[in-house]
Write a structure and sequence with these properties.
The structure is a homotetramer of 153-residue chains. In chain A, 13% of the residues lie in helices and 35% in strands. Chain A has 153 residues and is mainly beta. Chain A has a single domain, classed as Thiol Ester Dehydrase, Chain A, CATH 3.10.129. In chain A, strands 1, 2, 3, 4, 5 and 6 form a 6-stranded antiparallel β-sheet that branches. The radius of gyration of chain A is 16 Å and the shape is globular. The mean pLDDT of chain A is 90. Strand 2 of chain A pairs antiparallel with strand 2 of chain B.
């Protein structure tokens, strides 16, 4: 489905802090990793593709609401939903689900956290020039769809 | 002033990513570092104090809006403002200012980013027991004040 | 084989720095992640197991030699080999291999880097007491073997 | 002194892991941060200087031996000593000292850890070309000296 993507992963020891749980900033790395895996699943390679050289996505907004902690070595799932496809920007919603048992539906159960990212398409006119706004390449917008609205949960 | 705190710091090489700028998740670490420095400046030591053993602050919300990138090895300032003092939670606003020249007013110029954290006071009944909600200790609430509203900028 | 373990993984965007390659400190996280995956593959869960509560492995030595850079979004393999099983410590050698093509033998080709970790078994007499040396539990030593010496390469 | 440099710093909450101590990979970030601060103290700016554009230092070896843990929010010092100045590479030794009391000599007491880095001078012929070996610029070698041998401790 070009409007959502689910990625399973595992908490690593170094993701934790002395409170014994995953450090809150780690969830933002996981959002980005899920976004990039989503793009790869669509055949789009960010920051290295041949059809969209020089185009990247700068983060302009990020948020996360934490409901329950994740601990090492739990498995969890991240679900990305495309929320908005703009002329020069994209927005995604994320939900984190866990801990997962072996063989369990990754989205079963209450979410651990919910988050969002908004990214702006940027380019450089020279390899070390300043970033400037750019239109999202059509090779990307053609492969994405906005996700249907969710039931509140 | 018990309602705000300013901390200067420097972008380190490892804070950057291959886009040549500070990775967006790093701003959340800097918010937390500023919060902890603020508490130290008030004589409050989180997670190790003798007057509030077993009390910590779990992150329940975090957000950041990015306006301009920070690059290595720029100096920058983070300003924390206390936004809300609840019975069992606290909220802060953050603004990031940079790059700073030597001797410059750390809050001069346009902000690089703005963010917020909401934290819930939590405790454990035993060292490895589950986290549960707790009232913010009076030793903390007595030393904090809510910041006055800001002019929009 | 209880003397070696191979784990495949992918470079993530946030693993890179402004030089456009994986930051060197990241390789140490990958060594530890491989060690923990190796232990899980043997049915041993570090830091949470029921048969060896309170026992952990403190890092006493770590090193890495870097031959070629890894870049985003390359896939790579980490090979762990058990080098020494001591009364209260363990040592591992690591080699990093990449970039990997889809379906390729993960250990094919020249290594990207080689590293080593030595870890000491430690325990605490109370949950927040100081770490002190302990014997490696027999449940662990019984499942490990020292790897045969390697041809130099 | 152009053969050594001491930098004081503080353990941050996010530097710790669920064992309650600083994660071992963090020490490598601190070595690099100290190296860069040393170069800044000599008026040399890595990766952005005008006299040595395109030259950087790729890490070719890193090691660390850990004697005692550091915990949040301890202050500590890192001492860098220049160990070798080669035609196209440099080597440093590091020692970590802590925890520090306010006003204490930063190098007092037993070291927490000892480490080393070897770095190779690299350049690119084009901004995205491959890294290749280069001579250390004379503007750098002229300002560095090899540290005298240390008494074993």
């Amino acid at each position: 489905m070009p409007h959502e993507f689910v990625r399973e992963s595992r908490v690593e020891f170094a993701d934790t802090d002395m409170a014994g749980i995953v450090h809150f900033a780690q969830f933002f790395r996981w959002m980005e990793e899920t976004e990039h895996a989503f793009f790869r699943s669509l055949g789009i390679q960010l920051h290295r593709g041949t059809t969209h050289e020089r185009v990247g996505f700068a983060r302009v907004h990020a948020d996360c609401d934490y409901r329950r902690p994740l601990t090492y070595p739990e498995r969890f799932a991240v679900r990305l939903a495309v929320r908005r496809i703009g002329k020069s920007s994209l927005s995604y919603d994320f939900s984190f689900h866990g801990p997962l048992s072996e063989g369990q539906d990754p989205l079963a159960g209450e979410p651990v956290a919910r988050g969002a990212l908004s990214v702006a398409c940027v380019t450089r006119d020279t390899p070390e020039g300043p970033l400037r706004s750019a239109d999202v390449p059509s090779v990307i917008t053609e492969r994405l769809e906005v996700a249907p609205p969710e039931d509140p949960s």
